Amino acid sequence: MPIDIEKFKPAYEKWVEESLQDYQAGKMKEIIKKYPFIVPDGIPWTSYKGQPSEQTFALVTSGGFYLKGRQPPFDTVSIHGDTSFREIPKTVHQEDLAIAHSHYDHSLAEQDINIIFPIDRFIELEKENIIGKVAETHYSFSYVNDVVTLVTETIPKFLSRIKAEGVDVLFLVPA
Amino acid sequence: MAEEAGIPTISMGNAADRMAHIRPPRALFVKFARGSMFGEPGNVKRQRRIILDALDALKTMTEPGTIQELPYKWKRPDPE
Fold it and tell me: Is A128 a member of any domain?
């Protein structure tokens, strides 16, 4: 694993302790400066093979999207952020989605989700056979600082879902 | 971690410093603000074009950590 979580954990816990006051005061630049970013030893890599027209694509965003009235919003208060994800169906429409993320301006995405989550464009490309298939399920994360829980609990769960669905390629769009 | 599990990824990004930290396996860099990686709301043509750029990048990026800068500018027409 290129991410050494055992090494990160104490550095992260120290960061939480030292940054909580600044976080609560909204001093985001200050706390990001102190965040113990991990520089991976190597870049994880799987060679791309095949043709998009024969493959299944899934979108992953960190835009904080959730299904209005059907899924709980993300935690936007905790310094840890929210380590969970929401499953967004292929059939989603703009009006079905809400955004819970306090650290970017989502007013434009509220007008057009496709600027972070270009699901409508993917469906058009599927109809034109430029891509093989748009996965039935896509994924939204939100603001997360707690990489420990993310890496040890959330990501394995997420990977088992995308593998079960036969996803060939992930398109990652940070907010 | 997806790549380690055998699933190739392509990422969007708009912050060179952050991308240098995170080192995504394959990435497209855009000069747009946070929250609008595919450009202006309603710019369907541009959204489509960026996805097509990503499909090309999947085939052409053969070195881990490749970042390609896209030429699009906010509220300016796309280059031919």
Answer: yes
Nearest to B35 among A3, A40, A108 (CB): A108
For chain B, report the end-to-end CA distance as a whole number of angstroms. Answer: 36
Minimal CA separation from B60 to chain A, in Å: 9
Residue A58 forms beta bridges with which residues?
A170
For B9, the closest of A108, A163, A170 (CB atoms) is A170
Residue B32 CA neighbour count, 13 Å, CB half: 32
Query: What backbone phi and psi angles, to 5 degrees, belong to A86?
Result: -115, 140
Do A17 and A59 lie in one domain? The reply is no
ipTM value = 0.95
A15 and A82, same domain (yes or no)? no
Domain that holds residue A11: 5-34
Subunit contact B9:A52, Cβ cutoff 8 A: no
Residue A40 in domain: no
Contacts of B12 in chain A (CB under 8 A): 172-174
| Residue A167 belongs to a domain | yes
Give per-residue pLDDT as tens, B56-76. 999 999 999 999 999 999 989
Provide the Cα torsion B22, B23, B25, B27; round to 10°. 90
Interface contact flag, A174 B11, Cβ < 8 Å? yes
Is the same domain home to A108 and A76? yes
Q: What is the pLDDT of residues A59-104, one digit of tens each?
A: 999 999 999 999 999 999 999 999 999 999 999 999 999 999 989 9
* Contacts of residue B78, Cβ cutoff 8 Å, sequence gap at least 6: B45, B46, B49, B71, B72
